[in-house]
Give the backbone structure.
Amino acid sequence: WRRWPLGVFVITAVPGVLMTSLGYPVDLLIGPTVAVYLLAASRQRQTPWTARTTAIVAGLFAAYLAAAATAQDGFPALALLHTGMAFAIAWFAGDRTRLRREQMAELRERAARAERDAERERLLAVAEERARIARDLHDSAGHAINVIAVRAGAARLRQDPDRSLLALKDIEELARQTAGEIDQIVGTLRDGSTDHAPAGLASLTTLIAQHTAAGLRVTLDTKGEPTPLTASADQAAYRILQEALTNAAQHGSGSARIELAYMAAAVDLNVTNPVRIGATPREAGGHGLIGMHERATLLGGTLQTCRANGSFRLHARIPYGARRP
């Protein structure tokens, strides 16, 4: 009866009309009234009240009034009043039920959509956090491993014990420093805090000293008045320079030049190093450049690389504020 309320209306209304026409008093059609309620309650928003349904309901209602008029030998005012009011109330109640059902379904859909959106945001946040951790680990560990490899090669020189001991000392200090950075990254991941002080341009001198001790000749040229950067911009600038020097040590011929220019709204980073003979453009790039480009882009900056005349050049521009594009 819920699937075919119109059929229920016809089945219940026809006997009422017949009984009224035969002279049996039927003041209120209970069955058709319930069917009218079902018609209104089961109607979907996309399936409005059709002309066929209207014709069937109106036709049977008119037939009932005609039968009542014949049985009473006059105008069936009482039957019209009772049945008309019953049908109107049933229709109103059914329509309110339908609206309530649709509202509840819409609320459930909104809740499910909000839950899906929240889950999507959570997954995106997790992916961004993983990418950030991967970049930090790549920058810290990659730099340390490269310097350790160079210093370990120097420590193998048996004819120079003092140099070997100095190289081992540098390896120990760098290993401890890198372990501390990794512990800091993992600790941040565990407790979710972001108030630690990451490495910034203030540590650039230490970074250059580490590479110099490993055999890379680094020159630094600073232009303009140093301007404070936000924490994220400061860390991004440092990590970009760290990765650039690591690439210069791995793929270069032993020297690198850093130009640090403080502009009106951003700091320009330029790193140039001769490329080792036999190094391909793919070797001079790698995943490290992808991480550097992401760091610059996330802060509204730019990063470009090129290779010409036997040298590899990296240019990055980092805005002082953490403005996103």
